[in-house]
Amino acid sequence: MNRVFLGAMDQMVSRQISRDTLRSMKRSASEGYFTGGRVPFGYRTEPDGKRARLLPDDAEAPVVKKAFALCLAGLGALAAAQQLNEAGQLRRGACWKKTSLLYMLQSDVYTGTRTFNRKNKKTGQLKPSAEWVQVESHPALVSREDFERVQIMMQERAPSRAQGGTPRSGFVFSGLLTCGVCGNPLQVVNGTGRGGVLYNYYGCCAHKKGAPRCLFRPTRADLFDDWLMGEVLAQLVTPEVMAHAVHEVSDMGSRWAQGQEGKAVRPAGDTRKGHARPG
């Protein structure tokens, strides 16, 4: 009984601490103070007594604004990342990738908002947006209107997942090839030719990692597979290889036949048990 009572008390105290912590963070954020965590790209912390405030960084804030402007102009995250990299506007010394730029573009911190109670601490799962707590806490780098427009544009550009999963490539050497120019993996991409015919190509995907677009020229995947398969077979199916294979098969057949001959053959006969009846 005592254990049940103590357990219930622990839960009550834990919930009260969580509520007090959330209330304290909300109050600090609404007063313009930074509540901890990693400083978002585009901002810096400015000490204010024992606490700190989140303020725009003079070097990084223009990069954030340009990224949103590029997307508002119609560029996708990959194309915008390439333009930023080519302009030397990097992410704290690292090249922008599609994923890192998408993460930034989807963060409402750039509207001057701090969001709390977003995830369940026990499961790590995202809570319903109705349970989130949002507080205006620091200077915005983009307007709420522009931020929402970018979200809509990204959703419209996102590929449909109606059929579920990622389509698998049916090409023989997909996932096995690397670029001879820069050493990055080759990936199957597609394009429409004359008459609306869809073709598949092996193309270099270095630009998806934030690097400048490679000089590798896309190659028809079906034609390349036919050529490379012919080269592989030409190396494997030679007279010497075939002679060796025939010799191996012949030896295996001989060993099998010898094993069969060595087995004892049980003679047929009367196997009934018992003694003869007396006369």
Please tell me about this protein's structure.
This protein is an alpha+beta fold and 279 residues long. It has two domains: 132 residues, Putative Large Serine Recombinase, Chain B, Domain 2 (Hect, E3 ligase catalytic domain fold, Alpha-Beta Complex); 77 residues, no CATH class. Helix content is 40%, strand content 13%. It has seven helices and seven strands. The strands form three sheets. The chain has a three-stranded antiparallel beta sheet. It has a two-stranded antiparallel sheet with strand order 1-2. Strands 3-4 form a two-stranded antiparallel ribbon. Helix 3 packs across helix 4.
Fill in the CATH topology of the largest domain. Hect, E3 ligase catalytic domain fold
Radius of gyration: 34 Å
Main beta sheet: strand number and arrangement? 3 strands, antiparallel
According to CATH, what is the class of the largest domain? Answer: Alpha Beta
Between the first and last Cα atoms, what is the distance in angstroms? 90 Å
| Structure annotation, total helices | 7
* Number of beta strands: 7
Helix/sheet category: alpha+beta
Within the largest sheet, what's the order of strands? 5-6-7
Assign the CATH superfamily of the largest domain: Putative Large Serine Recombinase, Chain B, Domain 2
SSE run: HEEHHHEEHEEEHH
Low-pLDDT segments, ≥5 res: 160-167
Shape: elongated
